[in-house]
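# nightly structure sweep
# worker-07 picked up a monomer target from the shared queue
# config: single-sequence mode, recycle default, output format = structure tokens
# input follows
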Amino acid sequence: MIKFLCKVNDSVKQSKLEYKSALEPSVISKFELEFQTIIDSGYMSNPQPEVDPNLPKPRGRVKRSKPLNLILRLDLQRIQTLGFMYDFAVPFDNNLAERDIRMTKLKQKISGSCRSEHGANIFARIRGYISTLKKQGLPVLDALINIFLGIPLFV
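# output follows
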């Protein structure tokens, strides 16, 4: 599955380089079929645990293995799993979200966290503003100077 998702991501990257806004429908169909083949193979390799009919019926549902849980989740959430293939605005990974949190965790580690909730809110607001500027491709220093001049870009 990992190799498959990386292959789809490479195809999406190539399409973006060619200034396309979406993959060809035939390519999407091919990828969907390959995804289903991998899911079917996963179900065959990780069958549902069998319950001995001679034993008393246990309460709750039968515990499944971790690989089977993963396969079920990928199968049930295939639109979300392949979302980056259908919509080029959806990122392949969540690295950007993790980078946004990193500075907060670093401040917590270095200074032992913010001294008050008010201080934490101010820090988060400033970091959020800077992160938004970077994501929009705007010059951070100029925008911060404009804030002190009373001309904020975002309120």
